[in-house]
């Protein structure tokens, strides 16, 4: 493994010494709270009532962070913006509030990172990864980030890890909240929530949010001619508006202390306008999304004499997307297409606590369909469907009065994919395809408490990713699928130390540190090969390697001050068969990332100053298009007051104060300075 760590000190002894030194004195534990944008980050507690099926931190060997949103109104903040500040996490956005945002964990692409919402996988079989902009932050109570190995609570674990999103649950008694926000570029937000809980009987929760923005920020438009500065001009972004509405309904009923039924419905409707490459003012292209997710969950604890804990779940999801470019101003020709994804399935989680160990099992089976239709010609383009079974078994074994935890586990996945025959764009017949495949992924983790607050963690896992419908079957246009694709396969390794040390100094009351080395390899990487006609064919052609170092620290400085920071260095390498790309950096990944934040709490006033920087990314596989470094300076102020028996909170934030111009995706500029004000009332 160490031979691939080419960007670290040249000798292995120097690397090891530096690692131990940083682990002993230097950065961020995932074990204790960290205040971040009015959002508490912690990994030793879930911040809400624990339910069967939730991840128990006592059984974790992986490096994890939990962002706790309980009792906090996030205001006009996106999920992607929040995740992008965590160690080992990178998020790329496509321009303004509500723009497409994809996540990368430890160098793994969005396709290779699995994202769950209340135990339901959001990654669609159609492919493309999860668009973080379609998950309202207002609906969430906690965000769990598992870098590398993931707990058995998730049937599938991605190459880089798993992100689990947990929706809000009803608070005690009866109450609610109202929120109102304004921001730059006509940003606006309205939010409302009501909840009621009768202890031991039932609970209800309803909340809704509207979010909108013109996203007409100014940027430097070079008209696609970087070699000719004479035609450059500064102008406002055109046709970039966002309109989003979301609703969460949830109810739970206790049949007894150990038996609970919960029903929930999450709804989202979003209309996102799409600007053209030349920022045309006459463009009217937009992409609409309507999404439903229904869940029925039954939890039963202390079942039988073995005292088993069970959580079973039925789910149904329906996502309809409509792409409207009838002007033919963005794509190749006039397009008005509709894409519909439906998924439904059932899962069962079983936990068996025993003396000195906990045995856990997770089983899920389901069906997913993906249908496309050309609305201009009123013609279907072929339907795809996937049947799947996923199972995972984990044994958490404790030794030496729980100082040592060994965690062997294994994941199994079985897929049955089919594409129905259809008629192509030019009347040609498209034959149907069918394929079956399975994957076995062993996992092993270790956690050892070396001394009181100092803990060693080590993990190894093998992973696989089944190709998406798009990769298997293509769109029969300029991209041709390949039903004979093999799954991507990879392996993860990590090793690191955590330190959580309370102190008795007036100026320093606590130090929390974390350091981790990680390495991953990907074989049979799925890519597209283009012929002389410009037609792409999907193939297993290449391999890749990623290695890096994560550091994180939190210092409680006393008198209300806290200093925190994290840093990630990672080196990726294309090991593919194409000579022009071999040895190059994988595109779309920042090589270096840093965050430093100073915050102060004085009475009812909390303020922060924050710097975030990223550098060393290429847009293309040949590394001919380097991205400019990102340097963001943010600050904020939050005032909390109790008036007439109600809690009022005023939040002011300024983002990118330096006006840094950067592009996460080539040709999609991000906003410069942004200012936001949010007022909320809790009753």
Task: From the structure above, extract its key features.
683 residues, mainly beta, 22-stranded antiparallel barrel, seven-stranded mixed β-sheet, 3 helices, globular
Care to describe what's here?
- With 683 residues, the protein is mostly beta strands.
- The relative contact order is 0.13.
- The chain has three helices and 36 strands.
- Helices cover 4% and strands 58% of the residues.
- The chain has a 22-stranded antiparallel β-barrel.
Question: What share of the residues does DSSP label as strand, in percent?
Answer: over 45%
What is the straight-line distance between the termini? 55 Å
The total of beta strands comes to 36
Tally of DSSP helical segments:
3
Q: How many whole angstroms does the radius of gyration measure?
A: 25 Å
Question: Taking all residues together, what is the mean pLDDT?
Answer: 85
Low-confidence stretches: 1-48
- Helix proportion of residues, in percent? under 10%
Q: State the secondary-structure class.
A: mainly beta
What is the overall silhouette?
A: globular
Structure summary:
The protein is mainly β. Helices cover 4% and strands 58% of the residues.
Please outline the helices and strands.
Elements (H helix, E strand, L loop, with lengths): L11 H14 L8 E3 L2 E4 L20 E6 L10 H5 L5 E5 L7 E5 L7 E5 L2 E2 L18 E8 L13 E7 L5 E11 L3 E12 L3 E12 L4 E4 L11 E4 L5 E15 L2 E15 L12 E18 L4 E18 L9 E20 L2 E18 L4 E21 L4 E16 L2 E2 L5 E2 L2 E19 L2 E12 L3 H5 L5 E2 L7 E15 L7 E21 L5 E23 L2 E14 L17 E11 L2 E11 L14 E14 L2 E10 L18 E9 L1
Parallel strand pairs: 6-9, 27-30
Antiparallel strand pairs: 1-2, 2-3, 3-8, 4-5, 6-7, 8-9, 10-11, 10-36, 11-12, 12-15, 13-14, 15-16, 16-17, 17-18, 18-19, 19-20, 20-21, 21-22, 22-25, 23-24, 25-26, 26-28, 28-29, 29-30, 30-31, 31-32, 32-33, 33-34, 34-35, 35-36
């Amino acid at each position: 493994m160490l031979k691939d760590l080419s960007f670290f000190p040249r000798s292995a002894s120097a690397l090891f010494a530096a690692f131990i030194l940083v682990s002993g004195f230097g950065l961020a534990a995932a074990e204790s709270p960290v205040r971040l944008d009015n959002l508490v980050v912690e990994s030793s507690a879930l911040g809400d009532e624990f339910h069967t099926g939730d991840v128990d931190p006592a059984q974790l060997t992986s490096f994890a962070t939990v962002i706790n949103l309980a009792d906090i109104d996030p205001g006009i903040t996106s999920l992607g913006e929040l995740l992008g500040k965590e160690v080992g996490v990178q998020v790329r956005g496509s321009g303004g509030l509500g723009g497409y945002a994809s996540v990368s964990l430890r160098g793994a692409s969005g396709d290779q990172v699995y994202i769950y919402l209340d135990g339901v996988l959001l990654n669609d079989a159609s492919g493309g990864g999860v668009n973080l902009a379609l998950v309202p932050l207002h609906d969430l109570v906690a965000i769990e980030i598992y870098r590398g190995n993931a707990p058995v609570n998730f049937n599938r674990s991605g190459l880089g890890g798993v992100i689990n999103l947990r929706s809000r649950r009803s608070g005690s008694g009866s109450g609610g909240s109202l929120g109102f926000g304004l921001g730059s570029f006509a940003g606006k937000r309205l939010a409302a929530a009501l909840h009621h809980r009768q202890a031991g009987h039932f609970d209800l929760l309803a909340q809704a949010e509207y979010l909108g923005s013109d996203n007409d920020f100014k940027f430097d438009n070079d008209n696609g001619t970087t070699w000719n500065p004479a035609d450059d001009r500064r102008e406002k972004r055109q046709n970039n508006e966002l309109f989003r509405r979301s609703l969460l309904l949830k109810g739970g009923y206790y049949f007894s202390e150990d038996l609970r039924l919960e029903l929930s419905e999450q709804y989202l409707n979003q209309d996102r306008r799409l600007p053209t490459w030349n920022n045309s003012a006459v463009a009217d292209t937009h992409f609409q999304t309507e999404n439903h997710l229904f869940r029925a969950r039954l939890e039963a604890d202390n079942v039988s004499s073995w005292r088993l804990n069970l959580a079973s779940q039925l789910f149904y999801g329906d996502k309809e997307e409509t792409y409207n470019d009838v002007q033919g101003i963005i794509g190749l020709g006039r397009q008005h297409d509709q894409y519909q994804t439906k998924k439904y399935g059932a899962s069962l989680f079983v936990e068996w606590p025993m003396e000195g160990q906990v045995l856990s099992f997770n089983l899920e089976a389901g069906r997913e369909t993906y249908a496309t239709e050309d609305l201009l010609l009123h013609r279907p383009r072929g339907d795809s469907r996937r049947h799947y079974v996923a199972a995972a078994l984990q044994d958490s074994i404790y030794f030496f009065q729980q100082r040592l935890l060994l965690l062997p586990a294994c994941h199994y996945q079985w897929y049955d994919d089919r594409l129905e025959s259809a008629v192509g764009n030019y009347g040609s017949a498209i034959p149907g395809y069918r394929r079956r495949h399975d994957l076995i992924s062993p996992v092993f983790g270790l956690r050892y408490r070396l001394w009181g607050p100092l803990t060693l963690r080590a993990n190894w896992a093998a992973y696989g990713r089944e190709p998406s419908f798009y990769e298997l079957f293509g769109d029969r246009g300029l991209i041709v699928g390949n039903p004979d694709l093999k799954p991507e396969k990879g392996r993860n390794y990590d090793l690191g130390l955590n330190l959580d040390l309370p102190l008795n100094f007036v100026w320093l009351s606590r130090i929390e540190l974390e350091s981790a080395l990680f390495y991953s390899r990907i074989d049979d990487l799925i890519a597209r090969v283009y012929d002389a006609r410009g037609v792409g064919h999907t193939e297993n052609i290449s391999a890749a390697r990623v290695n890096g170092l994560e550091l994180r620290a939190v210092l409680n400085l006393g008198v209300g001050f806290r200093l925190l920071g994290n840093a990630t260095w990672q080196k990726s390498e294309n090991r593919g068969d194409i000579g022009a790309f071999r040895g190059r950096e994988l595109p779309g990944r920042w090589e270096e990332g840093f965050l430093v934040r100073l915050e102060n709490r004085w009475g009812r006033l909390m303020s922060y100053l924050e710097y975030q920087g990223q550098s060393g990314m290429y847009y293309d596989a040949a590394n001919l298009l380097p991205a400019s470094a990102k340097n963001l300076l943010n600050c904020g102020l939050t005032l909390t007051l109790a008036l007439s028996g109600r809690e009022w909170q005023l939040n002011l934030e300024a983002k990118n104060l330096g006006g840094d111009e950067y592009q996460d995706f080539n040709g999609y500029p991000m906003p410069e300075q942004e200012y936001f004000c949010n007022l909320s009332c809790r009753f």
